[in-house]
Amino acid sequence: MTAEDGGIPGAGLTYPTSPDAVADALTSDPILVDPMFGNGATEAVRDGFADLAAQTDHAVYVVLVPMEAGDAAGSDPGRDLALYLSGAGGLGPGYYVIDTDAGNGVGSIEAIGVPDDVSPSAVTDGMAPDTYASGTYDGSVLPSDTGRLAMDLDIMLRQGEGFDQDDYDHYAQSSPWASPPNWESSYDHQPPDPGAYWAFGTTALVVGAGAAWILLRHVATWGPASKQAGGRSAARPTEAWPELPTNPAAVSATLTPRELRTRVESELTAVAEARAARDRASLDAARWSRIDTAVEAARLVLARAGDRDRDVPDLVGALVLTRTAAYALEDGRGRQAPYRPCFFDPRHGRGVKRRDIPVGDVTLDVACCSLCARRRPADLLPLRDRRRPYYERDTVWARTGYGAFVDDLPFQVLDELRETR
Fold first, then answer.
1. 236 and 378 in contact (C-beta within 8 Å)?
2. Does residue 145 share a domain with residue 280?
3. 99 exposure class (CB count in 10 Å sphere: 0-12, 13-18, 19+)
4. Are residues 411 and 264 part of one domain?
5. Which portions of the chain have biased composition (kind: Polar residues) (predicted)?
6. Which residues contact residue 92 at a Cβ distance below 8 angstroms, ignoring those fewer than 6 apart?
7. Per-residue pLDDT tens for 180-230?
8. Which distant-in-sequence residues (6+ apart) come within 8 Å of 412 by Cβ?
């Protein structure tokens, strides 16, 4: 199976997956690492776990896969899954590296029928830098959640022998195991400049929680119910939105949710590779913060989204976040401006034009693609969230216009995920 099959590249797992599907996948590949757990370098993480597994004659199974908790999930879902895989799943004894909840750091290593005499935390006690007291902690001097699992597996396979400070520092400071700098909550986050948010008419309106949604309800008639003068229905094309020949980054609305997910995963992998290849000294700290936060947010959104029609708005959000990171990674003109997608449908690519839309007594100035800039209002086809234009919903995507209104989309998305998890 390949990435084109949907789900986890190389495993063919779809979302949401099941213990039986995971057991089947593990028989052909004992190391399953979804990009959500890949620290922006999924292949390197897989290779790292493979190298660790080669240290022992015991079986090692890695299951870093987003899964929905079943109705019968107990208080220790990691061990429950490991016991199921080793028993009913037919995999037998081994070390099971389990994490099915991206971003929450609840992964564990379950030793089923193999030596389990060492406590990794006891071995690493005192090795982490004491930066809390000095107020300098930014999250970058500790292993990431995935890195911690790799480090704990390393300790367990060695039975604690020979693991020292240099080994700890390897997991805490080196790619792909190290944790990126902590993202800053947008509640305290300051926009890069006073003009970061768009003004409507002569009134500066900061589009915050709910404000964009309330305002954009006035333009909901851009959908199929649009009317021309005289009350006649506007002439509308019946075919789906085509690929945009002037924008090679455009994603067709004809893609199925699974195909869209695969497209996002492919772009996220490409961003991860570009990020890993870039010398961190080549970009300033603010740019790296934008890149790392956008990648983290994209991974978490993708982990929570499925591949059904109702998941399309979130999949598009993950696409925009991925492209936010890619745009910031480009050297170009030392660009500091954030990525702006086409407001009407972010699948169209970057908003390279601007368009004034009358909204009551004011005018809404939005970024859009070249085709949307030329279309009549009655012919615009906004991205839909189920049966309504996305901006008519009360979601983080509506409140931010997928980044059309704000400079800190990744931070706002992470805040939203933190509040709703």
1. yes
2. no
3. buried
4. yes
5. 172-185
6. 59, 86, 113
7. 654 333 334 443 333 333 333 222 233 333 344 444 444 444 444 343 333
8. 186, 396, 399, 400, 406
Asked whether residue 223 is assigned to any structural domain, the reply reads no
Q: How far apart are CA 338 and CA 298, in angstroms?
A: 15
Q: Is the pTM of this model over 0.70?
A: no
Q: At what angle do helices 42-53 and 145-158 cross, to 10 degrees?
A: 10
How many distinct structural domains can be found in the chain? Answer: 2
pLDDT per residue as tens digits for the range 368-394: 888 888 888 878 888 998 888 888 888
Q: Provide the 8-state DSSP code for 350.
A: B
If you write DSSP's letter for every residue of 191-248 in order, what string do you get?
Answer: PSSTTSS-EETTEE----TTHHHHHHGGGGGGSTT-B-GGGPBPP---SPPPP-TT-T
Residue 228: inside a domain: no
Residues of the domain holding 37: 19-130+141-173
Amino acid letter, 317: G
Residue 251 within any structural domain of the chain: no
Three-state DSSP class for residue 277 = helix
Tokens 């999949």: give the residue: 315
